[in-house]
C-alpha cells in the first residue's frame, strides 16, 4: 500500500507552503535545495517542515491539501502546533475585526 503525505512548510519570511507527496523526506530536501527557481519556496529558504499527515488514498490526500491550502497561515500553524482551540477560533471567523476574539494579541 502506498503512503501519501500532505505537508506544511514554514518559510523564512513567515509564509507557509502546502503540498502533497509520496516521499516526504525527498520532497523536503528538494524544497530546501531550491531545485526549482520558479517554486514559491525558492526565495523563502531556509524552510521548516512544521506539519505532515499520512494518507493511504491519494484522493483523500489531494482533498485535504486543497482544503488547507485556502487556510490562513495562522490557521495552518495552529494545526501544526496542535493548538486545536485556536484552530476552532480561526475557523469560526477569518476576519478578526468581525470576530468576538481579539487575535491581534496572538
TrEMBL record:
<dbReference type="InterPro" id="IPR000305">
    <property type="entry name" value="GIY-YIG_endonuc"/>
</dbReference>
<dbReference type="Pfam" id="PF01541">
    <property type="entry name" value="GIY-YIG"/>
</dbReference>
<feature type="domain" description="GIY-YIG">
    <location>
        <begin position="2"/>
        <end position="78"/>
    </location>
</feature>
<dbReference type="InterPro" id="IPR050190">
    <property type="entry name" value="UPF0213_domain"/>
</dbReference>
<protein>
    <recommendedName>
        <fullName>GIY-YIG domain-containing protein</fullName>
    </recommendedName>
</protein>
<comment type="similarity">
    <text>Belongs to the UPF0213 family.</text>
</comment>
<dbReference type="InterPro" id="IPR035901">
    <property type="entry name" value="GIY-YIG_endonuc_sf"/>
</dbReference>
